[in-house]
Amino acid sequence: MDWDKLRIFHAVADAGSFTRAGETLNLSQSAVSRQISALEESVRTSLFHRHARGLILTEQGDVLYRTVKEVFHKLAMAEALISESREHPSGPLKITTTVAFGTTWLTPRIKEFIELYADVEVSVILTDGALDLSMREADVAIRMTAPRQPDLVQRHLLTVQSHIYAAPDYLADRGTPDTPEALDQHNLIVYGQEAAPPVASINWLMEAGVVGENRRRPIMRLDNLYGIYRAVRSGLGLAALPDYMVTEGSPLVRVLPDLSGPAIEAYFVYPEELRNAKRVSVFRDFLLRKVAEGNF
Hints:
CATH class of the largest domain: Alpha Beta
Number of domains: 3
Structural class: alpha/beta
CATH topology of the largest domain: D-Maltodextrin-Binding Protein, domain 2
Strand content: 15-25%
CATH architecture of the largest domain: 3-Layer(aba) Sandwich
Strand order of the largest sheet: 4-3-5-12-6
Radius of gyration: 24 Å
Order of helices and strands: HHHEEHEHEEEEHEEHEEEH
Distance between the termini: 55 Å
């Protein structure tokens, strides 16, 4: 099979249309369509179902797509490893972590890493879902749960504690709860139910101090921890937040300071095949140094 045609096929399958694939490849829609038709002719089968809303892979097309995607993945790995010297970290480093940890802890510190290693091309992907490292959706991850995949290397990074926080204006207006049971009388902001939370125990605030069959009703649900943090700062109510989000100088006040949520273990994770990649090892060491400096 012609490699250029396979490259175009891969782009079309990802994009779902000739037009969008052409924009990605800087080719005209007609040029992309001709290449796909030529590829289908060479393999003597249709690779796409064509309809008004776009393109859908046929069964044979899906088989070819999965194979081509795997080849692209292996070539990207080979390119990265070849281009990188063991003595000089360089090349792309795609980092993924949760939205909250990325926005409030990682990104304020990443400037120092970029200045130390100018030849490492840093990309950060913030998502509360787990990207597939084995398929190179990212190179490394900071995860709030230990990975289960056997082909991933993990290094414990830190233990995350969480407490209840509120804005001074809210406490001045509504008072400060002095027992967990008193939380029943307050506006509670919790993680929403429409998306998978970054950790299973994220809404422990809803159960702390609850007596009998009583059920608390939150003032708001929000599918983003950083959004919850901003809502707390606005004075809307109380919320359970990881301590790393409430940095020195923050106006937020810790409420019921002796009450804390379940500890969360955070891990630095990367594929086994990147074990000897210099850009990965220097980033791992950078993270461990920043954790050791404290400020949690």
